[in-house]
## 1
Amino acid sequence: IEYTNGKLSENEMPQFYNRQDYTLVLSKVEGGPMCVLESLAMGKQLIFPKDVGFGELFTEGLYLYEKDDLASLIEILEKLFNDK
C-alpha cells in the first residue's frame, strides 16, 4: 500500500501509478480528487465511495462502495483480492 497525500512530482506519477493495482479513494467530501483522473489515465481501476465527487460519472474500472459503510468497502476489497 502506497499513498501520496497529493505530494508527487509530475515525474514521479507514472512510476507510482504503474506500481498500483487499484486506487482507493476514502474521501467523504470531495469535488473530484485528481488521483481519479490520474488513475484512469494510467488504466488503473478505482474503488470509490458512492455519492462523493464526480467518480460515478465513470462507468469502467470503477467499484463503488457505500460511504461510511466499512462492510461495503471490505466486501469490494475481498472480492478484488479473491479475483486476483
## 2
Amino acid sequence: EPDDAQRFARLGAGRIITTGNLKFDVQPPEADAKAMAALRQALQQRPVLLAASTHVGEEKMVIEAHRRLRRQTPELITIIAPRHPQRGGAIAGLAADYGFAAAMRSRGHLPDRGTEIYVADTIGEMGLLYRLAPIVFMGGSLAKRGGQNPIEPAKLGTAILHGPYVSNFAAVYGELNRMRGAATVSDAESLANSVQRLLDDPALVKQMQKTAYDTVKRMGGALERTLNAIQPYLIQLRLR
C-alpha cells in the first residue's frame, strides 16, 4: 500500500507549477524593544549609515566613504555589521588606523557623541539595525561575494545601496534598481556621493524606502500560491 507521499507524487505527476520565491514571504527579523530603545537614545538623532553584512575589503571602502562624508556631515555615525562577527576587532582597528573613534557592540558598548564608527559585531540583531538606519549599504556586493539579501531591509524601510556584484539575488536587485528603490555604487567615492545625496534629500530617502517596500511586497505571494496549488491534492488524499 503506497504511503501519503507516494500518493501525492502520483496525483501531481506530469505537472510543474512555479509559484515564486518563498523568501519574499518570510517575516522580517524581529528586534528587541529594550535594545532598540537604548541604541536609538545613544544615537541621539545623528545621521546614520549602516553597512550590513560586509566582507573583507568592503569595510575599508565604507570607512573611506565615512571619511569623505564627514566633511559635509560631521555628525554622521557609520555602523558596520560584518558578515562574520569575529572580525569585529580587526574592523575597529581599521577605523583606528583612519583616526576614527570606534566602539564594539560585542563588548557591551553603546556609541557616544565621540563615536564615529560603531562595529555591530553581534549575531541576530539585523532587525534592530535595519529599523534604526534609514540608509543601508548591502555588503558582499563590492567584494565579489554575490551580494547579501536585500529583502529584509526593503521590508523594514531602508534606502538600499549596493555594489555591482549581486548574482546571489540578481532578480530582486534588478527589480529594485529598475523601480529606483535601490542604487548601485562602485567604490568608496561613489558610495560617499550617493550617501551624501540621500542625506541632503530626505524626500528622496522616503521615496526609495517606499519603492523598495512596495517592490518586494509585489514580488511576494509565493507562499499563498504554493498552498493554493497543493490544496486540491491534499483534499484528494484526505478523501482517499
## 3
Amino acid sequence: MSKKEILKLSFLKSVPILCSYVFVSMAYGMMMEEAGFHWYWSLFVSMTVYTGAFQFLLITFLSSGASVLTIALTAFFMNSRQTFYSLTFVNDFKKMGKRLPYMIHTMTDETYAINCSLALPEKEKEDVMFYVAFLSRCYWMAGAVLGGVLGQVLPFDFEGIDFCMTALFVIIFLDQWEHAASHRPALLGIGAGILCLLVFGAQNFMLPALLLTSGILFLGIWRQRSTPETGKHSGDGEDKA
C-alpha cells in the first residue's frame, strides 16, 4: 500500500472515533471554560493527559484544589486498565522504534479496539495504528479547543452541562457491565464507593474507595494464582512419593 492509501485507510478506520470524540471533547472544553480555564488550558491538558474520563474528573480536582497525590493516584487507578490493554501490543509497539512512546501515550479504549480489528501486513499495520492514534488525538484536541472557544463567544447557559461527566461514567460502566464475564468487580466498586462515601464524606471518599476496591481485587487475583500453584506442588509431591 502507498502512503496515501494508508492515510485514507487510517482515516476511514478512525471515523467512528471522530464521531464520538469531537462532541465529548467539546463538552469538556465548555466545562473547562465554565470552571475558569480557557481553551488553551483545555488544549494543554489534552496534549499531556489525554484520557477522556479523567480529564472530566480533573476539572473538579482543579476547581476544588485537590492534592497532587490524590490526583496522581486517582489517575493511576482510573487508567490502570490500559496496562492490560498494552500487553496485547507489547511486541507490535516495540517494533515501531521511535513511535513507541507516542503509541503508549495515545492508547485509548477506542484505538485499542481499532488496533485489534486490523488484519494487515506488519509494516502497514504499524503505520495504520500510528495514524489512527495521531488522528484520534487531533480529533479530541480540536473538539476541546472548539468547545472552549464556543464557551467564550456564545451566550450559552452552562447550568447542568457538568452532568455530561456523570453520563460519560454511566455509559462506560454500562459498556463494561455488558462485556464483562463477571460482575463482581463492578458490584465491589459500588459497595466500596457507598461505604467510603458514608465514612469519609462526599469530598474525600473517592481515593479511599479506589484503594479499597483495588486492594480487594489484587488480593483476589493473588489468591486465585496461589491456589492452583499449591495444588500443583501438592500433586508433584504425591507423584514423587
## 4
Amino acid sequence: MATRETKRKSGSYHHGDLRAALVAAAEEELIEKGVDAFSLRGAAKRAGVSHAAPAHHFKDANALLDALAAEGFRRLTEAMREEQASAAQDKQSHIIGAGVGYVRFAIENPQLLQLMFGTSRNKGDDTELRRQGEAAFSVLVNGVGALRGRDAMKGQEGWRDVAACWAMVHGYAQLAIAGKMTFVTGLEFEEQRNLIEDLVKRALSR
C-alpha cells in the first residue's frame, strides 16, 4: 500500500485523492511553519501538485486550514473513544478515558491542537469543521450524562461538570505542551496517565 510520503513524492494522485493529499500536506506545512507563515502554495508544493490545483477544493488557505482543523477534531474524537474502549467499563472510567484520550491527542499533536482552538485566524463557516467539533464535544457531554444521569443535563449541574472536565483536560494539555507541567509530569505520556486520571476524578468530585 502506498504511504502518504510515497504518494506525495510520486507527484500523481488518483482521482478523488487530491483533497486528502492537500489536507495531509497542510498538516506538514503547519507543523513546520505555523499558522502565521502557512501558505496554500506551500501546501500544494508539499503535495506535489501545481499551485493552482488547490482551487479545485479550497478557495483560500483559510479554507484548507478549516479542513485540517476538522480532521483534527475527527482524530480527537477517535483518540477519546480509543481510550474509553480500553478503560474499565464503569461510567466513571468511561469519562476518565475520554479525558486521557483528549490529553494524549493534544500532546501528540500540539500544532494541530493550537489550530483547532486558536484565535489567530478567522475561521470560516465550515459545516464539516462545526460537525466534527460538535462530535468531539459530545464525547465529554455523553460521558458526563451517563455518569450523572440524563436529568442532570437538563439543569446547570451536569453542564458545570462538563465545563470542569473540559477545562481540566484542556488546561492540562496546554500547560504540558508549553512545558509548564514538568514539576509533576514525566517525559513519556504513560508516566502522566495516572495523574490525568486523578485530575478528571477531581473535576468530577462534588
